[in-house]
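Aim 2, interim progress. The first record below pairs a target sequence with its structure tokens.
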Amino acid sequence: MSASMRYQRRALLQIPQAQRQQMAPLTNLDEAAAQSPAASPSSLRFDARRYFGVGELRYIRDEIDIELADRAYLPDLNDLQRDWVASVAAPAFRVLAHRRGTPRAFASIGTGSGVDALAAIEILGAQVIGITDLFADVVDAAARNVRRNIRPGIEIALHAGAGDLLAPLGPSGEQFDVIYENLPNLPVDDTRQIERDKTSAAFLAPRTEPIPGFVTDWLLTMHYLALVQAREALAPGGVVLSTIGARLPLELLTRMARAAGLTPRVLTYGWKLQADADDVISTYAQWERQGLGPFRFYGAEALTAAFADLDPGEAGDHAATIEASLAGEQLSAVAAWQAYRSGARIGHTYVVLQSGLG
């Protein structure tokens, strides 16, 4: 078990119920659990076509060459189904491009290594890119990664800044046609721990903004705050793509977007085997024992049958029907943990929620 997971478990057990309203999310367990943090090589090269799932490349180089900041997560090149950008973000970008055409400007909140921005350049054709993350060293490395991997002759306007959500992009004056986020889910109350031990993808400081109770109860704080901030950063007709491990009712996600003043729809819907299940499922079980949830997990066989051969866009169009078909297969986190320990393969659904101003 990593130091971050050990601290996470300890923190979970120490947070009183009354403090939850003021807590920020701790970790995006979908991405952080599936990818290894800083104990990694300082650079990484991989085939862009394979990783992004495209044919001929138009805007980025054939071989991606990225440097890795200490607090950014690596792409999972050994199993692209475990990699969040390759298996969730890139397919969602393809669906969005098919339905909405080419956006001029794209922003990523919490970019990490910057590969999500490269996906947006290649798949969406965005010409203006904004990237943010918590730490300057992470953002600086991501900006270099974007610039290094653009094909000769392709011009991209890049805005990059470190800080809270979209705030670092404010001075640019840009408005964005697409704002993408894959943000943390679980809270921690020690901001010093963020600076000492954690990657930028894993931990965020406590929040003081007013947040609807159901948002904090379902561990959606940062997703909600990103939507609130996005209202001022969206270009006319622009959309936010919130990528979320959907271990909760879909209705709560659309309710969250409406509470933030936006109009939502499900863009893509799919499922993943639970990565690093020993840590992740048990952590959600701890939250259930403290009164949250119940969170939703499923046996892998039930998920396979429910999604059949649907691609993520088709599944998104039928998300409510698929969710209803899985109602009898739901496992709480506590039940999922028990089933996993008995040898069951456990998964969860994910959603890319598209939200706009009207």
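The second target in this work package is listed in the same format:
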Amino acid sequence: MRLLLAGLFIFLTSCTGQGLGGFVVNDSTSGGSGDGGALEPKPRPCAVLSSSYAATLLDVAQRDGVRVFYTTNPADADVLPDLTDADGDGVPDYVENILRQAVHARAAYNGLGFRDPLNSPRYKAFGVKFIDIHVRAMADNGLAYDEAITYDNNPLMKDVCGVRIDLSNNLASFPGTWSVVAHELFHLYQYGYSMFKQSWFLEGMTAYAERVIRVGGVKGMGTTTLPATQNDLDTLVYAVPYNALFDRLAYLAEQDQAADMPLNPALFAGAYTDGSLIFKDRLLWGYPLIRKMLENVEEESKKISKEKSWDPVSWAESDQKDAQYQARVMRAIMKAVRDSNLATGGVAAEVNAFLALTPP
């Protein structure tokens, strides 16, 4: 353990100036209340888990409230296949690049006005201090979990509450053009806004949001038209996790498709260990509309909690995924569209037909 902590100290100090150079990505761990000194409620206890895999993740790289746990022990099932460490700082490049994508994408999301997960009422209620990424041998590329957790069988995770992402330890040619870290990270933003976990909402919006580091303001130039009938809505949106709804709406909402994201220019200079840029361009269309959607969905989540007398930050998993609430999520999305006045010019008929499907 002493060797690990020494290695971590070397990593943290040697990376000064290689991360975000002073960009503020989160203030929830600063120790201040943020409201002139008023005391915040004592956090609730987060879930305490034990896991055989978690017990083996005894290496960690950490920066700006993000922790990446991994193992280099060849006896462990989750050992990194590629332990290349080009700069010799004691952290494999694979892990360092995961950390860099997470920190830069988070700074971008926050800079665009999305509320950091750790500043959300949900995760503040449990005293969550870190976004934790567990690098594992897994069939999926990545998974994001909504529960606030800690692990009592790992001394690096014990007694500190985090919200977790699992990431494959063997993504081919990572980082390349991969955006899986940014993708899974945005799910944590969604979880911070509301309790809803319908896949069409989570995956459709996040497939849009990961464009923050990819080429193009939206996927496919947003050319897939909006659903015009209830059958379209059912079969092309509700039944399709990675649907085109959010890309199309973001495309229609963007007034200047050539405009850079309004972020600190130094952020765009962020690079992976191989020198390639993290941000493949500076475009993300329609993000104010997407942000407003999340704010509206948050209000709908609060309303249902009040109607049902549910804890607003802790619903049963079955209730989070219950399809009976998808129409209410859609109404919240449509309200953002109505308030943005998108039904103008040559797309008025398309937008109005879409808005007519779920009355306000």
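Residues 196-360 form one domain. This observation will shape the mutagenesis plan for the next reporting period.
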